[in-house]
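Consider the subject:
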Amino acid sequence: MLNFNLLPENANNLYKGNRVSLWFFIAFVCLMTWRSIIHMFFQEYGMHTIANLKLLTGDPDPMPLIYMFFSLWGFAQLIFCAVCWVIIFRYKSLIPLMYLLWILEWGIRTFLYPVMSGDLTASIIYSDGVTPGAVGAPYVTVLLLIFFVLSLKKRN
């Protein structure tokens, strides 16, 4: 039976969903925490080597400002991951809610962002290839949806 109560009366450490969903969530948060650390502290590596974005030149040099925004994005991701870690260790009953928030992030990246960006000329001009997040977003969204449903299913 599915439990659609995403906000339990008492947020506690009793996780009632499928155990596989719990362990997937922990592994996923580990991966997202690592991604956030790369974006925050290793902006140049994450931006050029992993995300395949070209180095921009000019006077003044635009890259320090771009790296700062990339780092701030990583910091925002790290804050979200920190909330997930608090939930993993202290409030497991909120894991279905966190799944829903991750689905929103990855779902928008999968379905809404390509529509919003419209003309993809800029991503072709400023990139040497597709970012791993863009390639993996549809698969991650489907996985998150599957494990979200499993997190709602009560164990026997």
